[in-house]
Design a protein that fits this description.
heterodimer, A: 158 residues, alpha+beta, Ubiquitin-like (UB roll), DNA polymerase, domain 1, 2 domains, 5-stranded mixed beta sheet, 5 helices, 35% helix, B: 324 residues, Aldehyde Oxidoreductase, domain 4, 4-stranded mixed beta sheet, 7 helices, 26% strand, oxidoreductase (chain A), metal ion binding (chain A), oxidoreductase activity (chain A), metal-binding (chain A), iron (chain A)
Chain lengths: 158, 324
Amino acid sequence: MKTINVKINGENYTREINEDMRLLDFIRDELKLYGTKEGCGEGECGACTVIMDGVTVNSCMVMAFQANNKEILTIEGMEDEKGLHPIQQAFLDEGAVQCGFCIPGMVLSAKALLDKNPKPSRKEIKEGISGNLCRCTGYNKIVDSIEKASQYLEGEDQ
Amino acid sequence: MKKRGFGYGCIFYGTGYGNGFPDISRSIAELDTKGHINIYVGATEVGQGAKTILGQIAAEALDVPVEIVTLIHEDTSITPDAGTAAASRQTYNTGNAVKISAEELKKEIIVVAKGLLNEDHLEISNGVIRSNTSDKTLTLKDIAEASGGGFLRKDGIFQANTTEMDPETGQGNPYWPYTINAYAVEVEVDTTTGIVDIIRAACSQDVGRAINPSLVEGQIDGGFAMGLGYAIFEDINLDKGRIKHNRFTNYLIPTALDMPEIEKIIVEDPESTGPFGAKGIGEPVMIAAAPAILNAIYDAVGVRLTEIPVTPEKLLKALKKREG
């Protein structure tokens, strides 16, 4: 057993965990945050994407102890007291969600991209979400919504 | 060398179970005590948008705001059977059942309203019951209260028209209705690596009538992506009944970088038996992509591939064979 301190969605958690626990299982089973999905479980599909210290990671490929003293954002942390995050709102407005299983990961990849590059080209958006597989949408409306989110966020800053 | 080519694919596709198999959807429309409409259907929402468009169909049939319609679905203890979310059949089949139940409920609401107002010529307009001969009105809540605080409920059943084909003559009426589309793609083939890149695409899709155009576009994008994977990437690699490509490292599906921009053309030619003219497109949107891509590869490099997926290895082999 090992004790870790992790800040997730702004809250500090101290937990005793098994050394072989994945970050994905820590988030879902230990903290009961079920927005993060498990797809392939081997780092190929991006469904379990979370942001750790500003960088997207596949939480199935990170051990929970590696998150010690790190700051993590999951889909549950996107919404605030004002409501949905502009990226989430843009996904709704553009009709970018079909079955929804890839969407938490897509939204977090979009956030990591827009944090670094607030006005990406469509090519840059496609590169930014190329680690997130989607079987339903054909991606185009997701790309549209990230473009729209970029406009929403620019509007917020002004 | 990189070579470009154009290709087209056209299909027609019969929706519904077909070939005489009973294809039945059931719905219940209810006016609840708050004056809101509840629709009960066993239809499953898998992301295709059934939940959205069935609510729209009910609102349109009743002439009430869509915001007061709640769709209650997938709970088999309280919803009637609406068949599977398969065969591209929910919009057409269950849409018809929902429309019938909503129309029956509307008739019942008018009957109650006639008794309350002592008027004969009544209609529902944007959720309010109005008289055509006076300025008397009633709300749906008035109707709910007048019917003893109970719930007004009406059933709708729709059975698709399908007969078994005659095995001798091949004649019959296996499917109703048919959905038609035509896709065009431009590809770029790298003759050194065998990699095929889809540069752009245009997809024209007959939908009868688009109940929700944004959802139709989403279905076209998604169908094209699956057709693209089917045409050039996705190989399960069966070996003695075992799937050898059983992970995303070797069973490749398209990523955002593989998808072209798609010009989506929605063709509306209302189907007389469809709910407000609508037909299903779930499967049809996928089918034309692979033939269009293979035709474009032929146009680009002059080799006719007859086996999918057209992986770089297969394409290079075919190019080499042609050169002899």
